[in-house]
Each structure stands twice: as structure tokens, then as C-alpha cells.
Specification:
The protein is mainly alpha-helical. The protein is 61% helix and 3% strand. It is built from 20 helices and 4 strands. The chain has a two-stranded antiparallel sheet with strand order 1-2. It has a two-stranded antiparallel ribbon with strand order 3-4. The two termini are 50 Å apart.
Length: 471
């Protein structure tokens, strides 16, 4: 189920972008998945979860290439083997870098992004995962409550995406005008695929078929439901329209907030969390304008802010009774509802540490890669205008082939282009009927003009048809 989130991310990002760059985001998410699998197998799991590490910051290479990762009790639970746990955590990492790829939207080159993915996994994600989930991590020892990845997954991808977009720079001004998603149906499809996968993401983090897993699943339904409604209503007050993109955005915000909290809080707290995350994340989309960072797909507002909300809610509403439902974690205290007042500042300090570390290291790493010859992060201005699908991928998410006689025989009025250009405008409309009659008597069969297809280019909002001549 967690692996199924990858196509959900790809469809979501593709639908949110312009048509001319839609496939490049699908490619980036798909390829980052492959890069992450290799990194996790090579040394990622060892750097995040090796039990012999003692520094509290990052693991060692004791399990390089999954050496000695077999049937021993896992770091997550003594009830599941180490090998299964390593695979499950690999899918968490894949989802994280998939979210991060939203930072390249419409102007980032894909090859440098893959190099960045491998290094970012090593220098950012693995330390964050070690802090929260490794038994030697400083966050784990300090008592941080992070159920399924508010720090490593959500803050990591959200703040990391913001830093990458900052180094990448803003899109050209003309690309920012009249920007809107090219396929809202794909946005909806991607959102509900993600929602389905998120049930495995959060439910599976209880590491067993127990009541805590079911509670996490319930919370993962309640929070996004209220988040989607609140976001949609906030947008309605401005446009007087029930935005589908708004509903999907709010649902994802609720799911993000549920990620660190769903295994700790009661369902009634999820109602509050869903309302708060839907409202706060909605208003957080305005922050990028003040920062002048072109976070095209709102990674910061959705994932970073949503993850922060979920982590802070643990400080208030985490309950020992919910945590102990798995029958394993029976000695962990909750938050304010259990009288554990110090939990809030532990959560707050953890949020500050993950945000600061992620932004600084991601920005430095991205800038360093950008300085390497041949690995500049951004495409050319011409490539941005044409679209990344054409200049980077060479294929298109939505391709159109017209069936017609020959491009010289066609025009919007049904007559010959050359004849139209030679006639005054007042004679053009008078000859429309004759042209239609001529076209009906034409004995040429319809065929696909493969070598003479017209390309449609958007220039300053005008659609211009350009005929390609056959060499």
C-alpha cells in the first residue's frame, strides 16, 4: 500500500502542473524511487537504523548492503524481523524523495535532481530517521513522539523542497501568469491513491494487526476529511466555487498532520487536528510570496506545516492509552492530556532542529551540485518556455495527433491556407460554402500526417500553429 503512493504522487504532481511539463514530474517521481531503492540497499538502512551506532546523529555502515539484516528483532518492534522492517522503511524513504521532487516543477532538470536525491538521502533523510526512530538517536532517547514520520518524511520533504526551490530560483514571470493545474481529474485521482496508501503508511507503523493500527487508520480518515472540508470552505469564501483542488489540498494537509500523530491521539483530537491543519495550511500557502520562493506545488505549506502541526498536537493530545494499544509500548507517556507538561517543549525543540538542519543542508547540497559542470539544476529559459517534457523527456503526458488530409489543405475555415492568404478578408467568408463543397468532393482519403504534424506553442497566451515541412 505504501508503494502504491508513488503513482499517486506522480499523478497528483502531473495534474497540478502545466501540460507541457506534466510528464517530467511523473518521470522525476518514478526515477527518484529507483535511486532511493539503490541508496537504501547500499547504505541508507544502515546509516538510519544500525543498532551498533552510538553517536545519536547518524548510524554506521555495520549493515552495509543489508549485511546481517535477516531475522533478528527489528528496531521498530520485536514482533517483526529486521529484513521486513528494512523493506517497510525503504518505502517511507521512497515516498519522501517522491514528495521532494515537487520542488523541481516546471524548471528543474531531472539528471541533477537524481544526483541530488542520492546525496540528500544520505546527508538529510538518514540522519533525520536516525534521530527519531533509531534506539540510539538523540530524539528517540529524549522522548520525541513521532509516530510515522513528521520529522523525516514531512518536514524533510517540505522544508527540503522549499530549500531546493529557493536555490533553483523562480520561474519566468510569464510562466507565473494565469497558472492553473492542467488536469484536475488527475489531481483527484492522485489524492485518493495517496489516501489509500496512507492507510498502510500510518496503520502499518503500529507493526502488527492490533488496536493501535486500527486507531491510526481511523485518525487517518477523520483528519483528512475535516481538513478537506475546511480548506474547500475557505476557498469558497473568496471565489464562491467549491474547488476540487482545494478539497484535495486540504485532505492531503490532514493526512500529513496525521502522519506523526495518528498512533498517539484519540479520534476526537483528530477532528480538531483536521480543522486546524486545513485552515493553517491553507493560509500557509501565502508564505512563499513573502519569502519570494517559487514553491510551485506548495510543499512547504502542505508537508512542512502539516507535519509541524501533527508533531505539536502530540505534545498536547498524545495519550498513553492509545500508545499502549499495540501491547508493546506500554511505558511511554503521552502529552498534556496525561499531565506530561514537558512533552510540548520536547516536540517544539525537535521541530526546530529538523527544520533548521533540513533547510541548511539541503540548500548547501543543492548549490554545490549546481556548481558542478554539466549538473546545473535549472533548465534554460528557452527550455522552460517549451516545457520540460519536450526538452528533457522527449515524450508527453497528453499528446494529440490530428487526422486530416494535408496541412496545406486545412485551415480553421475549411479551405486552403494559401488561397486564404491571397484573398481579401471580405471574400473569405463568401467562399466558405464553395470551400466546403470542394472538400466534400475531394477524393483523397484521410490519413495520419506523421512527418507534417503541427506543433502548438503557447507564446504570451496566444496559440500559434507552425507547420513543420518535410525534409
Amino acid at each position: 500500500m505504501v508503494s502504491f503512493m508513488m503513482p499517486g504522487l506522480a499523478f497528483l504532481y502531473s495534474g497540478l502542473s502545466r501540460r507541457k511539463s506534466a510528464l517530467s514530474l511523473i518521470w522525476a517521481v518514478s526515477a527518484s524511487n529507483a535511486v532511493c531503492i539503490f541508496q537504501w540497499y547500499l547504505w541508507g538502512y544502515s546509516l538510519a537504523f544500525s543498532p551498533t551506532a552510538t553517536n545519536g546523529f547518524i548510524g554506521n555502515l555495520a549493515n552495509f548492503g543489508l549485511i546481517n539484516v535477516l531475522g533478528d528483532p527489528s528496531p521498530g518492534s520485536p514482533l517483526i524481523p529486521d529484513l521486513l522492517y528494512s523493506f517497510y522503511q525503504m518505502e517511507f524513504a521512497c515516498v519522501t524523495v517522491g514528495i521532494l521532487m515537487g520542488g523541481i516543477a516546471e524548471r528543474g532538470r531531472v539528471l541533477p535532481a537524481m544526483v541530488f536525491t542520492f546525496l540528500w538521502m544520505t546527508l538529510v533523510y538518514c540522519p533525520l530517521a536516525c534521530w527519531a526512530w533509531n534506539v540510539s538517536g538523540w530524539g528517540f532517547k529524549w522522548g520525541v513522539l513521532d509516530y510515522a514520520g513528521g520529522g523525516p518524511v514531512e518536514i524533510g520533504s517540505g522544508i527540503g523542497g522549499l530549500a531546493y526551490a529557493w536555490v533553483l530560483g523562480r520561474r519566468q514571470q510569464k510562466e507565473l501568469l494565469n497558472f492553473r493545474p492542467h488536469n484536475v481529474a488527475m489531481v483527484n485521482l492522485g489524492t485518493f491513491i495517496l489516501w489509500f496508501g496512507w492507510l498502510g503508511f500510518n496503520g502499518g507503523s503500529a507493526f502488527g494487526a492490533n488496536l493501535r493500527a486500527i486507531m491510526a487508520i481511523w485518525n487517518s480518515m477523520i483528519a483528512p476529511a475535516f481538513g478537506g472540508i475546511v480548506w474547500c470552505l475557505l476557498d469558497y469564501r473568496l471565489e464562491r466555487k467549491y474547488s476540487m483542488v482545494g478539497f484535495c489540498s486540504g485532505s492531503i494537509a490532514g493526512l500529513v498532520a496525521a502522519t506523526p500523530a495518528s498512533g498517539y491521539i484519540h479520534p476526537w483530537a483528530s477532528v480538531i487536528m483536521g480543522i486546524v491543519s486545513g485552515a493553517v495550511c491553507n493560509y500557509a500557502t501565502k508564505i512563499k510570496a513573502h519569502l519570494r520562493i517559487d514553491d510551485a506545488l506548495d510543499l512547504f505549506a502542505e508537508h512542512a506545516v502539516g507535519g509541524i502541526i501533527g508533531l505539536l498536537f502530540n505534545g498536547f493530545f498524545a495519550s498513553h492509552t492509545i500508545i499502549a494499544l499495540d501491547g508493546v509500548n506500554t511505558n511511554i507517556s503521552g502529552g498534556w492530556v496525561d499531565g506530561n507538561w514537558k512533552q510540548l517543549y520536547i516536540q517544539f525543540a525537535y521541530v526546530c532542529a529538523t527544520c533548521a538542519y533540513t533547510f541548511v543542508v539541503t540548500a548547501v547540497l543543492a548549490k554545490a551540485i549546481d556548481l558542478i559542470p554539466g549538473l546545473h539544476l535549472r533548465t534554460s529559459p528557452e527550455g522552460e518556455s517549451l516545457g520540460l517534457d519536450e526538452v528533457e523527456i522527449g515524450e508527453f503526458a497528453n499528446d494529440y495527433i490530428e487526422v486530416r488530409r494535408h496541412f496545406t489543405d486545412w485551415s480553421p475555415f475549411g479551405d486552403h491556407v494559401n488561397e486564404r492568404e491571397s484573398q481579401p478578408l471580405d471574400k473569405t467568408f463568401a467562399n466558405d460554402d464553395n470551400s466546403k463543397a470542394d472538400s466534400q468532393e475531394d477524393h483523397h482519403s484521410l490519413q495520419l500526417e506523421i512527418s507534417n504534424l503541427e506543433t502548438i506553442a503557447e507564446k504570451n497566451g496566444d496559440v500559434v500553429s507552425e507547420a513543420r515541412t518535410t525534409s
